[in-house]
Amino acid sequence: MSSSKRMLKTLTYEEKGPVIWEVENGFKTKSLIAKEFGIPPNTMSTYLKNKETILNKLERCIQQQHSNKNKYLFK
């Protein structure tokens, strides 16, 4: 009897954003979206519950990337 542990998949904020967008877009079912991104449906529900926090952090990440890019371009 072998017990296989489920591999945990941790998504970055850049990867969580599209999950939220797909759900809000409404063209696919939540279970299909969860399968496409390789996450359990309850994890996706947690993303949706924390949507504001995730989107705020995603926005900060994007702004930081742009400022870093500009810093290197104008040196």
TrEMBL record:
GO terms for cellular component: nucleus. It comes from the Eukaryota. Its main location: nucleus. GO terms for molecular function: DNA binding. Residues 5-57 form the HTH psq-type domain. It is found in: Nucleus. InterPro entries: Homeodomain-like_sf, HTH_Psq. Gene3D superfamilies: Homeodomain-like. This is HTH psq-type domain-containing protein. The lineage of its organism: Eukaryota, Metazoa, Ecdysozoa, Arthropoda, Hexapoda.
